[in-house]
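Researcher: Let's try something more involved. This one mixes different molecule types, so please make sure each is placed in the same coordinate frame as the others.
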Amino acid sequence: MTTGISLVRENAESMRPPRSLWVSFSLGRPLGVPNDAQFQHRVIAASLNLLERDRGPILEDYPVNAPKVSRETVPACPVSFPKANNGSNWQSRLAGELSSLKPWYELGRRRRGGRTLACVSDLSIEENLHKLGEYLDLNRLPIDELHWFKQAIEDAKVFYLEAMTAQPGNHDQMQVDQTLWRETQLGAGLFLFYKGFRAHPTLHPFARLILPRTAVRGTTG
Amino acid sequence: MVRATDLPDYEREHLLDKNLPPLGPHCWTKHAKPLKEMRVALITTAGIHFQDDESFDFTDSSFRPIPGEEDSSNLIMSHSSANFDRIGFAEDVNLVFPIDRFKELANVGTIDSLASVHYSFMGAGLMPEAYEQSADQVAHLLKQDQVDAVFLTPV
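Model: All components are placed in one shared frame. Result:
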């Protein structure tokens, strides 16, 4: 028997799993709040409670929202990203950003007890950004290295995000994402890869793993 | 997340496009024992795994085992979607895969025990039928492990 969490109520309504608890939390946060064991236990208890019901399917709404992040207490992004110097190439611009972000990434990693998600690729972040910059400078798509490209951009994005959220506190996800996509050279470079893949006759589905829909179309605010 | 009706058009259309009919005939297993006697496994579609495991591909219907005794703080993520927050998972594995919470529930006797192995899929880009073989395999493994109930988390 199964129970669990649903994040998109309409999807769960249509598929009718036997038991599911719909929560109003953001995508990526099915238990609601990081590092809050009591909050997570209350969500789990509401879902486990469905196991002892006699009839189903059951789709129950969890009545509590995740606490809103107060703009006044949001830690500032520790790095200010300069406007692009059009005289330099992508490789040097990405290398410059990496130098600014690296101390903050390391600080964030220490604060998280050594934990980082930026380690899916076999290559280092330096090597991955160098290769991404090389493709951008050559105005080419990495169509022969898609497996590497997927891992490299996942590591690069999460490296930036971990550095930008290095300081303790409740970060505003939307604000952090907007900074990544609108102010960084990585965001600008990934937008070019996105446009290239979108226009490719066979590899266009790959575009959707590069940019989130909010970066392509606007914001959900 | 918020109801799809509260989202911008492009986001709502994308999510509602994922509405699908129920998978097969209605199934319902009535509980045969109280929760405190149940052995529970976790399954997530968050595309998480240990660093030494093969990462998930662009579309991928395979699964990764997550042994309960391994250090869950070493779990990483290679999900294909760019459309959800990952920083919460970087801060706390339990936000997506609440293994420590379930260990606590087993310790205080709310559940009987935890499965020896839990499982991770990567839920993106494929229709449910593509997962049938992997799902059958995991169901068989769960039965072997004498699991009574599964707690499912999306991402």
